[in-house]
Amino acid sequence: MKELVIISGKGGTGKTSITGAFAALAGNSVLADCDVDAADLHLLLKPRIIQKHDFYGGSRALIRNELCTDCGKCREVCRFDAIEIRGPVSPHRQKTYQVDPVACEGCGLCAYFCPAQAIQFDPALNGEWYISGTNYGPMVHAQLGMAEGNSGKLVSLIRQEAKKIAEEEKIENLLIDGSPGIGCPVIASITGADQVLIITEPTLSGLHDLQRVAELTRHFHIPAMVGINKWDINEELTGEITRQAEELGLTMAGKIRYSRAVTEAQVKQMPIVEYTNDGISQDIRELWQVVMGELNKS
Ligand code: SF4
Ligand code: SF4
Question: Does the beta carbon of 114 lie inside 6 Å of ligand 2?
Answer without folding.
Answer: no
